[in-house]
Write a structure and sequence with these properties.
The chain is of the alpha/beta class. The protein folds into 2 domains: about 170 residues, 3-Layer(aba) Sandwich (Rossmann fold), CATH 3.40.50.620; about 80 residues, no CATH class. Helices cover about 40% and strands about 20% of the residues. It has 12 helices and 9 strands. A 6-stranded parallel beta sheet has the order 1-4-3-2-5-6, sandwiched between helices. A 3-stranded antiparallel beta sheet has the order 7-8-9, covered by helices on one side. Strand 5, helix 9 and strand 6 form a beta-alpha-beta unit. Bound molecules: pantoate. The site of pantoate has 10 residues, from strand 2 and helix 8.
């Protein structure tokens, strides 16, 4: 099977981009931190269906980790990732180092994240979204893709990426893709690699809780539903950070059910922090 081409520098990337422009080829972009799983593969597949070429970036972005131990433990599996991508046509990997992606005086001007950045993940991981905005800004500027693909598992990140795209005036169209789950219901995540067999079982309480909340819609009040869901959750082996039912646009917590809401959860399973959500 043919190996996927890997680009390491911004200069090589610019040359690659220029060739696509000269041939009027469209480019889809899938930014990742590596440790690729079927969730990433579904984004890549969608991009290959919709674009002439697809660029997959693999970069563990230190700026978005508010916890140094989490950064240290984050899986780095570049050679396995490249093996997984073998045989994909018209796909190129961009695997820069930190200096390449964050040159001195990179011209990045931070944006105000407002309430979208302060709640949920923003409240529990200070500085996380600032780091995401910085790296995605630098990547978008270099890659200049026609479309970029993001998973709905990181729902708040997706909202922030839409904001930054508008704020900085990028021409890239943001495509949201559904969360991919294991047969067990566990949302796919690079972090799942760090769970042992027992933790993989324990973690199912996340999707069970989300499904319980969905089933209570319009039958019990939101506050009763959350109280009961938290009670059951806390009887399991995970440690809950938040469970919230919010408006999908504003991410403000809801007091009453509405036509569409999203239930978001974050919890620690052993030393691994997991997030998930369900839109209903
Ligand atoms: O979702 C991720 O994997 C990361 O947050 C992203 C968008 C690649 C930025 O580092």
């Amino acid at each position: 099977m043919s190996k996927v081409q890997v680009i390491h520098t911004a200069e090589e990337l610019q040359q690659f981009r220029q060739k696509l422009n000269e041939n009027a080829h469209s480019l889809g972009f899938v930014p990742t931190m590596g440790a690729l799983h079927n969730g990433h593969v579904s984004l890549i597949k969608k991009s290959t269906e919709e674009n002439d070429y697809t660029l997959i970036s693999i970069f563990v972005n230190p700026k978005q980790f508010n916890n140094s131990e989490d950064l240290k433990q984050y899986p780095r599996t570049l050679s396995a990732d490249l093996t997984q991508l073998e045989g994909l046509n018209n796909c190129v990997v961009f695997a820069p180092d930190e200096a390449e992606l964050y040159p001195q005086n990179d011209g990045f001007v931070p944006m105000e994240l407002g309430s979208t950045g302060n709640v949920l993940e923003g409240a529990f991981r200070p500085g996380h979204f600032e780091g995401v905005v910085h790296v995605v800004h630098n990547l978008f500027r270099l890659v200049a893709a026609n479309k970029a693909y993001f998973g709905q598992k990181d729902f708040q990140q997706l909202a922030i990426i839409r904001l930054l795209t508008r704020f900085y005036g990028f021409k890239t169209t943001i495509i949201a893709c559904p969360t991919v789950r294991e047969a067990s219901g566990l949302a796919m995540s690079s972090r799942n690699m760090r769970l042992n067999e027992k933790e993989l079982q324990d973690a199912l309480i996340i999707i069970e809780t989300l499904r319980f909340v969905e089933s209570a819609k319009n039958k019990r009040t939101i506050s009763e539903t959350l109280a009961s869901a938290k009670n059951s959750f806390n009887a399991g082996n995970l440690s809950l950070e938040y469970l919230a039912i919010v408006d999908p646009e504003t991410l403000c917590e809801l007091k009453d059910w509405q036509e569409n809401q999203i239930c978001c959860i974050a919890a620690h399973c052993g030393s691994v922090r997991l997030i998930d959500n369900l839109l209903f």
